[in-house]
Automatic annotation (TrEMBL):
It is a multi-pass membrane protein. One of its GO terms (cellular component) is membrane. This is Synaptic vesicle 2-related protein. The keyword Electron transport does not apply. It comes from Holothuria leucospilota (Black long sea cucumber). Residues 1-63 are annotated as: Disordered. The lineage of its organism: Eukaryota, Metazoa, Echinodermata, Eleutherozoa, Echinozoa. Gene3D superfamilies: MFS general substrate transporter like domains (1.20.1250.20).
Amino acid sequence: MEGINMHADESSVTKNGRKSSNLVTPVDENLLPVETHDGISNGKREPAVLGSDEEDKSPDISPDANFKEVERNVFEILDDQGSSSEELLLGGEDTYTVEEAIDKCGFGIFQIKISCIVGVLFMADAFEIIILSILADQLHCDWSLPLPKKALITTFVFVGYLIGASFFGSASDKFGRKSIVLVSSSWIFVFGVLSSFAPTLLWMYIARFCVGVGLGGAAQSWPMYAEFLPSKSRGRTLSLMQVFWVTGVLGVVSMSAVVVPRYGWRVLVFVAALPQLVFLMLMYYVPESPMFQVVSGQRKKAERTLRAVARLNRKTLPQGRLTVKFITVLSVRIFNPSAKIEKHTDCTDYCQKLDTTGYLQLLATSSSEFVGIFFVLATIDLMGRKISLMIFYFGTAVFLFLLNLCVSQHIITVFIFMIRGLSSSLFSVIYIYTTEVELLILFLRLTLFEIPAMARSSHLEVESYDPEVEKWESYEERLTMFFEANNVTEDKKKVAIFLSSMGAKGYGLLKNLVSPDKPSAKNFPEICKTLKDYYSPRPPVLLERFRFYSHTQSASESVTNFLAELKRLSSTCNFGAFLKDALRDWFVCGLYDATVQKKLLSEDDSLTLEKALKIAVSMETAAKSSAIIKEGTPSISRIYPTHIRSVGLGTCSSMARFGPILTPFFAQVLLAYSPRFTVSFYSILALIAGVCVTFLPYETKGVKLKTTATMESAH
């Protein structure tokens, strides 16, 4: 029943739930199956049943909400994590999380489709980043820019990136991944086009700064995409997505070699912005992240999204109710072999545009990012994220230091090739680690669970009744235990708490059912019986037994959950004294695993339900343990809490922008005066970063995952 929130100190009628933010772009309805309800209708139509509205009425945490609303909504989220003391007290039901649903759907047609669409954005972003090196050289000559002003073109982009990554990271967790990615991509397109018409250097600075802000927001496509990937293949898939980035790098370099000599840099900048427009049109076919939807209270929308994923992948969702559980870029100008590194004193600081040889050399070194993808694939799951980061950082430091050697141009090109490849690998692993690592879970458990738990127990609150996911009998049992746990014994007080917490529709329904009497004139048992007769009219025993014998264990269902579901179905079958025999017989016959079934069938007539369950659980546990030993690593994943994932990624992206902000000055200015100091400086930075990796809290996947999961479970 919608709107049933047990607050003893609230006498006003409250409606549980609000409309979702308009900034959340709706899912393409062509991708979504028509929602149907399993089971056979009892012939009664519920004209005003609460919780059956088409509109999503789930609660969402608004910044304008008062303390009680925030406390209540946060606790509802934490309840779904399975760690709530009240949930343990009041009992539970079969549930599944978004991660479990995505894992069951696997990697299929849906993931391939969204990979291609997000890949277009990766290529478009690569266009806007790599074009900086070419654009800076062109403006350096065409507008007679001194080196510091030339360097500022790149610096302004990454200053904007720093601001955009931080701002859009927070906004993404509030308004949705898809909405922010759409806004960011539109922003990049508009100011990318304006850059091509820049009449002055100030105009160019402002336009490229705004492009950088948009690029910071476009980085939110990474968590949006990652949240649709099954945990088992997430690392490899995210690594392979760099193919789109490298394709964009090679594409813009090749296009520059053709367009710039014939049409100039303005046409190049204009054309480089067009892929953003293509991506915006393709985003119509990408739904909002179901993780964001379920955390923000849009559970029904999340279920529709997951059904769309399952339908395209030809899979089924888990049974039960959906819940929620709680680069630094070096300028390629440094390594431009067509320009000599020497000191000049004229006002333009030795202007030289890229020639054909320069474009070919740039294309060759850019292709090294393909090699970086193979570096990641070879190490990320075998050695883990931390070891991979250390290898790539130390390797980058070594090859940067080797640039100080007096060797031939071909050897220098090899060093540059390795530096670009290792840097690309670093970029991939850092983003994967940031998306997966769970750094703040202990803090969240302390601040968001313990305090609201104490507050909630004093406010006499229980979750709302939803007839779509729970039978009235189950809700009534939990409600009775809730009253007992909080020492509510007086019948009038029970009625008062219940009636004062009902929504307007719920109270209106009850009022119609007991008319001409008033609901307040009824005692609590009478109210419960009235609602039970309405929500759960007794069905024919023959039909209930048909449902019982039709239920079999699914591939993803544990034997314990299978038996629990059989017990639930048997409650209305009127088996009487034969209940245990019926449960035992169909428990054995309905098992999914043929090996377990054969073992139970080989037992003699003394086999009881308890013994059958014990044998089945033992064999199921042994099979899972054997699979873990064969795989070498458990197929579980520690995920950054969904409601702070984009903030974490945005913060990481913002901090990483300090490198690109400072790099142009080192690359364009300091390099001309002291190349040895410049490459040595970056070599030392890479070495320090590699050492810092050892202080990361723990591995997210790989050889240390089992230990990590055990430690987290202990907490």
